[in-house]
Amino acid sequence: MEQIKAPAVVFPGQQESSGPYRIAYDLLARRAPREALEVLEAGLEVEPGNTGLRSLRAWAYFMRAQLGPAETELTKLVEDCPGDDWARHTLGRVLERQSRFAEALPHLRLAAAMTGDPEHETAVLRVERLLTTP
Fold first, then answer.
1. For residue 60, is pLDDT > 90?
2. What is the extent of the structural domain holding 112?
């Protein structure tokens, strides 16, 4: 397997020898989505179907407010794995940020039902209110 090089930015505690998933996750956790995307693109060249890397790429796009690419990636992830509550919730959030509330609501409702997560339930209530507010 081809070795993926770490980005120019390596944070304290981050191992340069870590795989692309770990490096990108660490970068995203530190709010460095541009650098994470560099690692993810290289990793996806080697493993184009890697769902973990694709999920992190969607997260990076979302963090950068690149809503079109985020929506495309998340839609594919939801099609590939309809039970992925994170992808479903995040797709709902992407659609919400585009003011596409009616499209967002089914994804948010399903994610909330799947997880029972109070944050997911709050997102449902927020979008329901936005739909009924003139």
1. yes
2. 68-134
How far apart, in Å, are the Cα atoms of 103 and each of 27, 43, 66, 128? 30, 31, 18, 11
CATH code, domain carrying 73: 1.25.40
CA atoms within 13 A on the CB side of 112: 18
Compute the CA torsion angle 68, 84, 26, 119 (nearest 10 deg): 90
**Four-CA torsion 122, 128, 129, 134, nearest 10 degrees:** 160
Task: Point out the domain boundary residue: 12, 31, 64.
Answer: 64
pLDDT digits (tens, 9 = 90+) for 79-134: 999 999 999 999 999 999 999 999 999 999 999 999 999 999 999 999 999 999 87
- Listing DSSP states for 36-89 in one string gives HHHHHHHHHHH-TT-HHHHHHHHHHHHHTT-HHHHHHHHHHHHHH-TT-HHHHH
| 51 Cα distance to chain centroid | 11
pTM (predicted TM-score): 0.83
Residues 100 and 49 in one domain: no
What are the phi and psi torsion angles at 3 (to 5°)? -80, 135
